[in-house]
Design brief:
The protein is an alpha/beta fold and about 475 residues long. It contains 14 helices and 18 strands. The strands form 3 sheets. A 6-stranded mixed sheet has the order 3-4-2-1-5-6. Strands 7-10-11-12-9-8 form a 6-stranded mixed sheet, with no helix packed on it. It has a 6-stranded parallel sheet with strand order 15-14-16-17-13-18, sandwiched between helices. Keywords: ATP-binding, Nucleotide-binding.
C-alpha cells in the first residue's frame, strides 16, 4: 500500500449494498473494506430483497477475486475479474481488507461501539498510518459523511451510479424551433406523403442537435409539430404527427390540453415506439393519457392483449402491514391512481350505477395489477405495460423490468423525479433518470417532460408554492 499516487477509498456497507459492481468502479485507485463492513454484509445476505441479492453478488465477486490471487492478502487483491461487468476492465487498483486491529484514535465523544463509528475509526487510523496517501471515506449515509468531515476525514458520496451530473440536464423530449426555421432549412428539402402523414428530409444548422425519437414544435400562425425518425448528423427525416387537441382525434374520449400532452399521446399511440418515458409533476396527466392510450389500443385496435400496471410499493407514511388476498388484491391499495383515472375514462351516459359497475368490471378484465416482486423471469407478449412511480426504481430494477418485454409489447414509465421515496436514490441516480438518459437517440423510444398541470387550479398552485 505504498503507491502514493493512488487514492485509497474506504467503502461503507451501503455502497456495496446499493451497487455490487462498485468494487470495479474506482479505476486505478485502491479500495479498503473494514471488518465491520464484512460483518454487516454477512448480516444482510439473507432474504429475497434487492439489497440481499446485491450483498450475495458482492460476496461472490470478492470470493472469486480471492480465488484468482494466491499471494498474501496483505498486499491487496488485484481488482481484475474476467466474469465481472464491463466496468471491471477499466479497474487496475487493489482490494485491501482490515487484517489487523488498528489503533482507536476516535475522539472521546465518538466511542467505537457502533458500525459507523468503527468505520470512522478505521479511516482515521489509515489516515495516520499512510500519511502520504489520500484516504477517502465513500458513503451514501449523509450523517456519516458529516461526522467524518467533523473529525478531519475526507468523505464523498458515491457518484458512479449517477446517470447524469444534474437533473436539469435531462432532455425534455422536444425542440422549440425558431420562427425562421423554414428559411434556414428549406434548401434541398424533400417532402412526400405517406397515408395521412407528411415526411420531410432536410438539412440545416439545427439538424446536428436533433436525435431520433425527439419532437420538433413551431408555434405561431402556422403551427408545426413533427417527430424525428432518423438523423445521420447531416440530414434528418421528420414526420408530422396527429393533433390530438382536435375533438375528432380524441383517444378514449381524452384530448390533449397542451403541446406536451399532444406529444405524449403521439408517443403512446405510435406502433413504431416500444418504450416511452413521461416525466412531470402531479396533475400533468401522465397516468390519464397513458391509460387512455392503452385502453384505445387494447379494446378498439386490438394491438395489445391486455394492460399490465405495476409500481414500487413504498408507503408515504407509516406502513399499514401485510395485506390480505391475492396478488391483485394486495396491489389494489397501491393502484389508487388507476382507479381515479378509470373513473374519468368510464362515465357511461346511461345505465346508472349498474352500467358504471358493469363497465368497470369489463375494463378490469383487461387491466392486470402486478407486483414488481414477481417480475423476474417472466416474458410479456403483446402487452401494454405501465410502470407507475418509476422514479423509485433503481437502474438495476429498471433493467430487470424492461427486459421482460417480448415481441409486440410496449413499456411506459411514468414518474416525477422530485418525489423519490426510495432510500439512497436521488434525482440523478434514479432508475427513471437512468433510462431517460440511456434511451436518448433510439428510434423506437421516446420521452416527454410534461410541464403544465391540468388537474385543478388548487393542485397547480400547490405544486408551484408548497
Amino acid at each position: 500500500m505504498t503507491n502514493s499516487n493512488r487514492r485509497l477509498f474506504v467503502l461503507d456497507t451501503n455502497i456495496l449494498m446499493h451497487d455490487p459492481t462498485s468494487l470495479f468502479r474506482f479505476q486505478e485507485h485502491d479500495i479498503y473494506i473494514p471488518m465491520t463492513v464484512l460483518e454487516e454484509l454477512d448480516n444482510g445476505k439473507k432474504g429475497l430483497s434487492e439489497v440481499a441479492r446485491n450483498v450475495r453478488q458482492v460476496s461472490r465477486f470478492i470470493d472469486t477475486l480471492m480465488e484468482q490471487y494466491d499471494n498474501g492478502i496483505e498486499e491487496g487483491v488485484p481488482l481484475i475479474l474476467d466474469s465481472a461487468p464491463q466496468q471491471s476492465k477499466e479497474s487496475s487498483g487493489r482490494l485491501f481488507f482490515q487484517t489487523e486491529v488498528l489503533a482507536d484514535s476516535l475522539p472521546s465523544n465518538l466511542p467505537g461501539d457502533t458500525p459507523d463509528n468503527n468505520i470512522l475509526a478505521v479511516a482515521l487510523a489509515l489516515q495516520e498510518k499512510y500519511a502520504e496517501r489520500q484516504i477517502t471515506l465513500v458513503s451514501k449515509d449523509i450523517n456519516l459523511r458529516i461526522k467524518a468531515s467533523v473529525i478531519g476525514i475526507n468523505a464523498e458520496d458515491y457518484f458512479n451510479d449517477h446517470a447524469i451530473e444534474d437533473a436539469d440536464l435531462l432532455p425534455v423530449g422536444f425542440h422549440e424551433l425558431p420562427k425562421d426555421f423554414w428559411e434556414l432549412h428549406s434548401r434541398d428539402m424533400e417532402s412526400w406523403q405517406e397515408q395521412s402523414k407528411t415526411l420531410y428530409r432536410l438539412k440545416g444548422p439545427l439538424v446536428k442537435e436533433w436525435k431520433p425519437g425527439e419532437f420538433l414544435t413551431l408555434e405561431g400562425d402556422q403551427p408545426f409539430q413533427a417527430i424525428i425518425r432518423d438523423n445521420d448528423g447531416e440530414q434528418a427525416l421528420i414526420e408530422t404527427i396527429k393533433d390530438f387537441s382536435e375533438e375528432h382525434h380524441s383517444v378514449w374520449g381524452i384530448n390533449a390540453l397542451n403541446t406536451e400532452q399532444n406529444l405524449a399521446i403521439n408517443l403512446l399511440t405510435d406502433p413504431e415506439v416500444d418504450f416511452v418515458t413521461l416525466l412531470g409533476t402531479a396533475g400533468t396527466g401522465k397516468t390519464l393519457l397513458t391509460l387512455a392510450a392503452g385502453l384505445a389500443q387494447t379494446l378498439d385496435e386490438k394491438r395489445y392483449k391486455e394492460i399490465i400496471m405495476t409500481r414500487v410499493t413504498i408507503p408515504v407514511g407509516e406502513d399499514i402491514g401485510f395485506l390480505p388476498g391475492t396478488e391483485e388484491e394486495k396491489m389494489a391499495p397501491w393502484m389508487g391512481a388507476l382507479m381515479d383515472n378509470l373513473e374519468v375514462l368510464t362515465q357511461p351516459t346511461s345505465g346508472g350505477n349498474w352500467g358504471r359497475n358493469a363497465t368497470d368490471e369489463f375494463l378490469m378484465n383487461k387491466i392486470k395489477l402486478r407486483s414488481l416482486n414477481f417480475m423476474r423471469g417472466r416474458t410479456f407478449l403483446n402487452r401494454y405495460i405501465i410502470v407507475d412511480e418509476a422514479q423509485n426504481l433503481t437502474s438495476k430494477q429498471m433493467k430487470t423490468l424492461i427486459t421482460r418485454a417480448g415481441p409486440g409489447t410496449k413499456v411506459v414509465c411514468l414518474g416525477n423525479i422530485a418525489q423519490i421515496d426510495t432510500p439512497y436514490l436521488t434525482e440523478t441516480s434514479s432508475g427513471l433518470t437512468y433510462v431517460v438518459d440511456r434511451f436518448q437517440g433510439w428510434e423506437h423510444g421516446g420521452h416527454v417532460t410534461l410541464k403544465t398541470g391540468e388537474r385543478s387550479r388548487l393542485a397547480a398552485f400547490a405544486s408551484e408554492n408548497l
